[in-house]
Amino acid sequence: MAHITRWPLVRHLRSSATMHVLHQRRGRVVHDGVGLAFWYRPLDAVLSEVPIDDRELPLLFHARTADFQDVAVQATVTYRVVNPALAAVRIDFGIDPEHGGWSSTPLEQLGGLLTELAQQHALDLLARTHLQQALVDGVPAVRDRISEGLASDSRLAETGVAAMSVRVVAIRPEPDVEKALQTPARELVQQEADRATYKRRALAVERERAISENELQNKIELARREEQLIQQRSANEHRKASGIAEAERIRATGQGDRDRLLAAAAAEQERLLGEAKADAARALGLAEGAAETARLEAWRDLAPAVVYGLALRELAAKLPSIGTLHLTPDLVTQALAQLTGVNGQTSGRAARR
């Protein structure tokens, strides 16, 4: 928007770098250019200000497809005034010389023109396109069709306006139709989700079965090893019992042999002891006989009185001890008689020898 400074009888205008200003006085162009600053008198000045920067025009309109379905098209058209002098002639861009504002709505007029032209080309294309194809391939097709139509439109060229670019954001059907169209895809996604769920469950069941089989195999292996352990223990007990029986048999056999050996040794010892006793008795007898013979030999040469004395001594040694002795005549007589008989026998033996 131009900046106007008010002075008595004159005004001063200063425009921006994006505004093309056209100053006419008495039908003659006085100033024509971008970013101008000049003095003018408001009574005889005709001012026009045309924007030359890029402008964005959002579009939102409805169209009907070949299968009679309503769709909403959302697009944006970027345009620019490439011939400001021509645009100022075709569209009213005049500004108030006192305040600098547009006296009409030129941008709305230009926007309406672009909207109608863009809708015309889009509606013409979508009217021959079915809904599903419009939803799949409609965005680039509508964009290209609007761009080509605006570029070749003679009215825009005569107005001095050029469409720089066209962007189609979306083509959407009615909500219920869109929901119906989404149902197969949702069902397909749900089927894929169910298939993944079933697959996961099947995999879980398979893994559970594998785990169960593994546990069962472990139990079978443990049972088999336990059976082997029992058999091994039984065999060990059998071998142990056999070893104990064999040891008992060997010990019994060895005990019998030892008893027989001990008995034989005892018998031999008894025999040897008997022989030794017999030899000892025999030697003792021979020694006693030899001693008796030697004693008799010694007594043979002794005098009778000595022999009597020795005999009395031996007799006294053999008699029991006498505490009190009572001698009677009969006892003395008997003793003398016995003594006399003994001495007579001894004398007779000595005489015989």
Write the layout of secondary structure elements.
Layout: E1 3-6, E2 11-14, E3 19-25, E4 28-34, E5 37-40, E6 45-51, E7 55-64, E8 70-81, H1 84-90, H2 106-126, H3 131-151, H4 154-159, E9 161-173, H5 175-300, H6 304-318, H7 329-352
Antiparallel strand pairs: 1-2, 2-5, 3-4, 3-6, 7-8, 8-9
Helix pairs in contact: 2-3
Defining key terms:
353 residues; alpha+beta; Tetrahydropterin Synthase, Chain A; 2 domains; three-stranded antiparallel sheet; 7 helices; 9 strands; 19% strand; rod-shaped
Description:
- This protein has 353 residues and is an alpha+beta fold.
- The chain folds into two domains: 3-173, Tetrahydropterin Synthase, Chain A, CATH 3.30.479; 175-266.
- The protein is 62% helix and 19% strand.
- The chain has seven helices and nine strands, in the order E-E-E-E-E-E-E-E-H-H-H-H-E-H-H-H.
- The protein has helices spanning 84-90, 106-126, 131-151, 154-159, 175-300, 304-318, 329-352; strands at residues 3-6, 11-14, 19-25, 28-34, 37-40, 45-51, 55-64, 70-81, 161-173.
- A three-stranded antiparallel beta sheet has the order 1-2-5, with no helix packed on it.
- A hairpin with a 2-residue loop joins strand 3 and strand 4 (28-34).
- Helix 2 (106-126) packs across helix 3.
